[in-house]
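Q: A reviewer asked whether we had any structural model of the full assembly, not just the individual parts. We don't, so I'm hoping you can provide one. Inputs are below.
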Amino acid sequence: MPTAPIETHHESPYEKRLVARLQAGESEALSALFDLHVDRVFAFARHLLGSREDAEEIVTEAFLRAFQRATAFRGECPFRGWLFGITRNLCLDRLRQPRLMLLEPEAMERHTDHGQAAAEMETSLVVRQALAQLSEEHRLVLTLCDVEEWDAHEVAAILEKSLPATKSLLYRARRALRTQLTTLWDEEEETHDAL
Amino acid sequence: MRCEEIRSLLDAHLDHEMGEELNRRLERHLLRCPACSYEARTLEQTRSMLREAVPPAVPSPGFRERAAARLLDALPELHPASGRTAARQWALPFSREET
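A: Here is a predicted structure for the entire assembly that you could use as a starting point for your response.
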């Protein structure tokens, strides 16, 4: 599957040298590139897939593929953008597979660790439900901009949109989440009143 | 400023992307206009609820080590030449060049 280049960020000379060394087959360069990019690539996959376990598998696979295909990388975009392209394709393949919807272990850990009150946990579940009902594009722009707080330029590059189009998408996504939340809470109120 | 103009600026206000003067004018309007004030407040509430419900993505403990081990295992197959020295190289702390 062709991988679209993504102009994510300004690549430093250090990164460029690492990529050249990766292309020469140096595993040490892969190790360094892994350390540099793993957190962002993981966050991207995690929010796209909605599952930490799946994201961890995909991220490992993405780095493997990057190493395997390093010689095909022509440097037309930053290495991270190329890696995001590989990751996105792998995520889309994964999303096409039938999946079991399970409660994320990290959500459970968070609530258990902090002894969060039941009411707050219920609110969180409704917010997650509302988020899950949004389009994939809305979900991704909201989580990358408002949760991860990434620079809008980088999110625009990942979404392959201009900066104004990305901001406009973000603004619509915020309103869509608000509408979805209102609807869910209205339904909950009605059910409560009917009991 | 008219309500329509104010509504189009609420996200920039939320993201702290507005200049001081414009910000002051917007805040004055919000004090006087309950409808725009409601709009601003609910947008802000929605974002804080989202941040509360969805934490930034963090891999599980040991993920980096597991992933590094898997990459190391696969190296000889992917790049036979690099695979021979991979274990030694991966184990050594990477001496970072200037960034």
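A: Points you may want to mention in the reply: Residues 34-53 of chain B form the longest helix (20 residues). Chain B touches chain A through 42 residues (CB under 8 Å).
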